[in-house]
Amino acid sequence: MDSKQAKQWMQKTAIRMEAEKDELSALDQALGDGDHGVNMARGFRAVEESLDEWDELSLSQLMQKLGSTLVSKVGGAAGPLYGTAFMRLGAAWKDVHQVDGEAWMSGMAKAVEGIAQRGKTQAGEGTLLDVWSPVAATFTASEPDWKKIEAEAKKGMEATEDMVVKKGRGALLGEKSVGHLDPGAVSSYYLFQELANLMKAGE
Amino acid sequence: MAENRVALLLISHVEALAEGARELLQQANPDVGIYACGGLNDGELGTSVDHIEAVMNEIDPEDDILIFYDIGSAKMNAEMVQEIHEDRNIAISNAPLIEGAYVATVTAGLGSPLLEIKREAEGGYSKEG
């Protein structure tokens, strides 16, 4: 992925979040504020509107800007979590102009570490980490297998339905929190699905 | 060395809840600096770093700050603000918003330092188990 493709990824994700806005918010009504879709759509719309201004930025700077925009425009818990993930990718890709398997592997490991620290969470607690973590583990030093990455993201997203939520307000409900897809895991799946589609098209 | 004065910052998803809590607590001691940060900048429900930052600007830069939060994302955004201002003495209380901030108001009114107020406020119950 180069910076041009990164910008296309942001654009595709903005369109996707807008399209899935109502569904994501409905999922969030089960255990949260019911605003995840609206927040994600607002955040990525702000990203999309900034893309012209970001035209001269390096890949690393783009990821930093994406992260800080999501922190402030998405808000809630998703803003800091997604924001931290992309800022870590930006930091990991300091001198990277074309992300290869190895750069994805090291960058995603940092992103996952960032989400875990920010959310004081780990995989298996019904959060977006249940998508980010298996996706990160799928990257190897060789050419990324985008089909497999998408499949892992989907599997991780679906698994959150059977988990006892340990974080956020859903955690107040204990065992009663089982039976709901985590909205952050679902939006993360969309994010990686858009990435996989884009990268497969470029192959 | 004299201890810094401690201001309380109440973060809630709802403006009316934060403002109402501030009103209740200020009654216990009108001299303690209590700041309410409820909802988002545009009046919608939620919590965000941007809005907390706006309220942070109203607090005396010499004051230490003890933050109370309601549920879910309020805490994560409080932690981000704490990191942004790493040069300041900011603590986050895991006590329930109303009960904890009430104890903190009384304790801060006695001139206690930040961590003692946090300890007192969490004395009865902490949301972190």
Report on the structure:
The complex is a heterodimer of chains A (203) and B (129). Chain A is mainly alpha-helical. Chain A has one domain (3-202): Serine Threonine Protein Phosphatase 5, Tetratricopeptide repeat (Alpha Horseshoe). Helices cover 68% and strands 0% of the residues of chain A. Chain A contains 8 helices and no strands. Chain A is globular, with a radius of gyration of 16 Å. Chain B has 129 residues and is α/β, with parallel strands linked by helices. Chain B has a domain at 6-93: Rossmann fold (3-Layer(aba) Sandwich), CATH 3.40.50.510. Chain B has 5 helices and 4 strands. Chain B has a 4-stranded parallel sheet, sandwiched between helices. In chain B, helix 3 links the parallel strand 3 (64-69) and strand 4 (90-92). In chain B, helix 1 (15-28) packs parallel to helix 4 and helix 4 (97-109) crosses helix 5. Chain B is globular. The termini of chain B are far apart. Classes of the chains: A mainly alpha (203), B alpha/beta (129).
Topology record:
The complex is a heterodimer of chains A (203) and B (129).
Chain A: H1 3-31, H2 36-50, H3 59-74, H4 78-92, H5 101-119, H6 129-138, H7 146-159, H8 183-202
Chain B: E1 6-12, H1 15-28, E2 34-38, H2 49-56, E3 64-69, H3 73-84, E4 90-92, H4 97-109, H5 114-122
Helix pairs in contact in B: 1-4, 4-5
List its traits.
heterodimer; A: 203 residues; mainly alpha; Serine Threonine Protein Phosphatase 5, Tetratricopeptide repeat; 68% helix; B: 129 residues; alpha/beta; Rossmann fold; four-stranded parallel β-sheet; 43% helix; Dihydroxyacetone_Kinase (chain A); phosphoenolpyruvate--glycerone phosphotransferase (chain A); glycerone kinase activity (chain A)
